Amino acid sequence: MGAYIARKLIQTIPTVFGVALLIFVLFNVVGGDPTYQMVGKHANAQLIAEIRHEYGFDQPLWKQFGSFLGEIVTFDFGRSYATRQKISEMILAGIGPSLTLAIPAFLLTTFVALVIAVLAAYQRGRAFDRFVVVACVLGMSVPMLAYILFGQYVLAYRLSWFPISGFEYGWPDRFGFVALPVLIWLIVSLGYDVRFFRTAVLEETGQDYVRTARAKGLAEEWIYFKHVLKNSMVPIVTNVVIEIPLLILGSFLLESFFSIPGLGNITIEAVHNSDLPVLKAMTLLNSLLLIGGNLLTDIIYTWVDPRVELR
Amino acid sequence: MKKAGVGLVLCVGLVGVGASCSRNGSTANDQLLAGKVLHMAQPERIKGLDPALAEDAYSGIEVSRTYETLLEYHYLKRPFVLIPGLAESMPEISKDGKTVMFKIKKGVLFQDDPCFKATGGKGREMTAADVVYSWKRIADPKTLSVQWMFLSNLIVGLDEWRDQASRAGKASYAIEVPGLKAVDDYTLRVELKQRSGQFLYYAATPGLSVVAREAVETYGTEFIRHPVGTGPFVLKEYNPAARLVWEKNPNFRKELYPSEGAPGDRERGLLADAGKALPLVDRLVVDVMIESQPMWLTFMKGRLDFAVPPKDSYSEAITLSKELAPELKSKGIQLQKEVLSDVTHVSFNMRDPLLGKNKKLRQALSVAFDQSEFNRVFYNDRAEQAQGPIPPNISGYDPKLKNPYRVFNIARAKQLLAEAGYKDGKGLPPLDYASVASSEGRNIATFMEKSFKEIGVQLKVSSYSWPEFLKAIKDGRSQLAGHAWAADYPDGQNFLMLFYGKNMPPNGNNDAFYSNPEYDKMYEKALTLPDGKERTALYRKMVSVLVEDCPWIFEAHRHGYYLTQPWLKNFKYHPFEHSRHKYFRVDPEIKAQYSK
Predict the structure, then answer these.
(1) What is the band of A236 on the pLDDT scale with cuts at 50, 70, 90?
(2) Share of chain B above pLDDT 90, in %
(3) What pLDDT, in 10s, does the model give residues A283-304?
(4) Hey, which residues does B196 pair with through a beta bridge?
(5) A256, B34, B146, B515: which has the fewest C-beta neighbours closer than 10 Å?
């Protein structure tokens, strides 16, 4: 497995290079010159020239790309154009709040979705299963923004069940501030997750070995919970594990609407301000986490399904 | 009620956790907000606390909590009046207007900070040398200060000092600038290149605040988040993405709430705190709330002390007769309406061979633009028709001015278009309109397209990201572009400079590339005149030239609607006094009554 991981990591290098090139073209070539925005309303030619020189905008593109590659290698993305903060520090500061929201939301969603999916699959075709399928479709059809607006207005403002927005660093108060966003995350994600997990379980129930087990007279519960569930774990684990590294990034909309100072919020604000270095860093981080998630999924495959061998 | 299912049980658990935090007084957050605390929201991430880099209004406000300027504005008096800030008195100005002598207040201390090693961390006294250092720092090319616009080409020797620093790659603060001299600890002499009607306003701009050299040198690049000032508050918590907490500066000198104001202020209770020591709150908590709905609901819940009703919640807050909605009245909320010191406009690219040379065409487009409808659709009718560039409450504003090309009249617009040589738009190619690629930008562009189509003029909309939009305008790539300008100081020059020939990009903000030697001559003369009848008459003459030449479609001066909680006292809109929150008072008893 060590050789596999090493090979995969080496293969990552051209992928990251490709991603870096794409990001550079998007932000440095297509995205435009941010100098006027940085100068604001008080621009003059001298200051514009000085800022261009200081930030290297006057350098040829190949040199700028070289600097960007250097930033990736050292993981030092410089400073935000908008706030002049070190981007690495912004990222580190944002991880905690993002994870405060994302980990409970992810664990709850996965657990609840699995339970509902297994029960629905077990009762396939019956009233509960049909209700779950319809509820999932309905849940997926409503955009997250609608849940947020409803949740803030009805549950937080009118009923006072939750704080309207904000974040607190102290424990355990911070959980109170993420309770409503977690609930919305749960509701929004359930539809997709339940349908996916239910399909994975149902696919497994159609396998030959299940028919054989039934023919041998094994109890339905035993077949289901001992054999079917275990074997349906491969696609489920794939779906779940690949999400884990991305949890660090939090949720753009939830963090923005609930004023949670996580990485999602930082990204949204960077979009508002056209803060290109922050956007570049966040896009790259997203790509790296996705690559890491894929690698992690491959490794976990071997634990879930002994037939899978990494070579 | 029976709760079936794991999901429901978990949801109930979440509600329990959330409810524990939504009750007043139950968390550290509530304790932070208890007592004489002003709690407010800012709609943007705070970009930093270095005055030299504070380009936007929100950063300017935050900077002014801890940094101070030589002059400031009287909080209550209208029209806006300058008063001494760090200066002991208003400066003495020589007859030729070129020498300005500031007497500096004695006993003004910087806040305690470890950067003051010589005093063991105790804040030292602020002197004239600190002003010299602070202004030189703005001129230092390495600072990349956006405030340089205020000082460039103004003070004798400062531009040369900057040029020398540029050439050497490093500024030498030991080299004296002839026009900027600390005569002694409490006297500052400023030699101007020529008389300036605006210099005193510059001296009240947050960007020209006084900083301590020790702090700049100790904290280096982190100085932006480590403010060390002389002002009423000191920073206790800095999270630019979420929250800033300021507390009363124990070193703050004795400064009193004004005992005079504008007519009507006494009746409104704005002089009830006359003579009391500032600031009137112990703590100031600023939450960053980018989205308008949570800000609005938090205000309605009584957890923010003042707010601006967002566009989407406007009808919930304000009735059709533009009064406060009954629900808000029952909560004791009060409404203040003010005309903002800004102007929105569409600028024509005067370098464009088609638009720049055809005055009748520009006039036709101006007449075809239905401002009332625009204000209704985009501003909830909270705006008034602009007749020229200068807004009300700004020196040089002419309330009697009626711009003949801002009277919406399709028939007249068609006639002007025919006189321009394009009857019913025939022969006129589609005009390129630059727009920001946002939902509002697109909606405005659609409105413009519809307006001009009425007279047969086609628009071609080019959508840009914000940085590209700015660049497109500055490069003169578009034929028309929509924009807004808010005043930095209450002088019409701050608007008239947008048409001065030498201010064309990249040297300034004459984004219409308007060039008129007659106008430029008047502008240069006005710069050297003190505020008075002669200057006002000149300003009005300049505006009349602009009205006729029509380099802009003068759109609107927007109105600000401000809502305050019943426990917030002394709220008065002031667009230029950034440290205004030191005058605000929160009455905890009234707050407790309403909370019940």
Answers:
(1) confident
(2) 81
(3) 888 888 888 888 888 887 777 7
(4) none
(5) B34
- How near does any CA of chain B get to the CA of A32, in Å? 5
User: Which residues from B are below 8 Å from A151, CB to CB?
Assistant: none
Closest CA in chain A for residue B5: A116
Burial zone of A161 (CB within 10 Å; 0-12 exposed, 13-18 middle, 19+ buried)? buried
Q: Tell me the mean pLDDT in the region A133-156.
A: 92
Cα A175 to Cα A92: distance, rounded to the nearest angstrom: 20
Beta-carbon separation of A269 and B470 below 8 A: no
Q: State the Cα–Cα distance between residues A295 and B386, nearest whole angstrom.
A: 61
Closest Cα in chain B, distance from residue A285 (Å): 19
Contact present, B268 and A139 (Cβ < 8 Å): no
Whether pLDDT at B504 is above 50: yes
What residue has token string 């040398």?
B129
User: Does the beta-carbon distance from A190 to B150 stay under 8 Å?
Assistant: no
Distance from CA of B166 to the nearest CA of A (A): 9
* pLDDT of A311 strictly over 80: no
| Least CB–CB distance from A83: residue in B148, B240, B505 | B240
Interface-testing mutation among B8, B12, B22, with chain A (most A C-beta atoms within 10 A): B22
The H or E element that residue B460 is part of is: strand B459-464
CA–CA gap between residue A269 and residue B482 (Å, rounded): 23
Calculate mean pLDDT across residues B280-290.
94
Q: Which residues of B touch A112 (CB under 8 A)?
A: 6-7, 10
B515-524 pLDDT, tens digit each = 999 999 999 9
Q: Which of A162, A254, A268, A280 to mutate to test the interface with B (most CBs of B within 10 A)?
A: A162
Residue B177 is given by DSSP the state B
Evaluate the omega torsion of the peptide bond into residue A172 and state whether it is cis, within 30 degrees of 0: yes
Contacts of A157 (CB under 8 A, 6+ apart): A164, B297, B300, B301
- State the pLDDT at residue B94: 96
Residues in B touching A44 (Cβ below 8 Å): 148-149, 152, 506-508
pLDDT class of A272 with cuts at 50, 70, 90: confident
CA distance B107 to B120: 18
Sequence letter at residue B246: W
Exposed/middle/buried for residue B532 (C-beta within 10 Å: 0-12, 13-18, 19+)? exposed
The Cα–Cα gap between A293 and A284 comes to 14
Query: Contacts of residue A41 in chain B, CB cutoff 8 Å?
Result: 55, 485, 509
CA dist A152 and A162 (Å) reads 8
Does residue A221 carry a pLDDT above 90? Answer: no
pLDDT range class, residue B15, cuts 50, 70, 90: low
Contacts with A129 (C-beta within 8 Å, 6 or more apart), sequence order: A120, A121, A123
B466, closest residue in chain A (CA to CA): A274
Check CB contact under 8 Å for B294 and A164.
Answer: yes
Residue by residue, DSSP assigns chain A as -HHHHHHHHHHHHHHHHHHHHHHHIIIIIIS---HHHHHTTS--HHHHHHHHHHHTTTS-HHHHHHHHHHHHHHT---B-TTT--BHHHHHHHHHHHHHHHHHHHHHHHHHHHHHHHHHHHHTTTSHHHHHHHHHHHHHHHS-HHHHHHHIIIIIIIIS-SS-SS----STTHHHHHHHHHHHHHHHHHHHHHHHHHHHHHHHHHTSHHHHHHHHTT--HHHIIIIIIHHHTHHHHHHHHHTTTGGGGG--HHHHHHTT--SHHHHHHHHHHHT-HHHHHHHHHHHHHHHHHHHHHHHHHHHHH-TT----
In the numeric block, which tokens belong to residue B89? 């008195």
Q: CB of B203 within 8 A of CB of B84?
A: no
Interface contacts (A, B; CB < 8 Å) = 203
